What we know:
The chain is mainly α and 137 residues long. The protein has one domain. It is built from 6 helices and no strands. It is elongated, with a radius of gyration of 26 Å. The chain crosses the membrane at residues 28-48, 54-75.
Amino acid sequence: xxxxxxxxxxxxxxxxxxxxxxxxxxxxxxxxxxxxxxxxxxxxxxxxxxxxxxxxxxxxxxxxxxxxxxxxxxxxxxxxxxxxxxxxxxxxxxxxxxxxxxxxxxxxxxxxxxxxxxxxxxxxxxxxxxxxxxxxx
Length: 137
């Protein structure tokens, strides 16, 4: 089987297996890297899918071009957001909430939670309601 006759889904499966071990971080760089890897995969499929049918080739190249243009637009808009909001862009989800809580504690707006230390961390924590029920015996 030649590469021009190869099924695109098989090629995508092979690319997925090849790039499965790559671990990308969160935030802007990680998201942009995923977009770049997706573009490489799309253009690899396009190159291997080219044939003697010029109309089909033109349609495939046009579709890949639209995806590429959208990706560049997305990356540029995301980069502008990163420049305006660097702390938000570099952190995700719970990390961002923890960062905001940390900032509020440093400014004195939010007090840090006061919890009693557990004597042995391997033992489960006892709630105060359990202690009250135990005292009533």
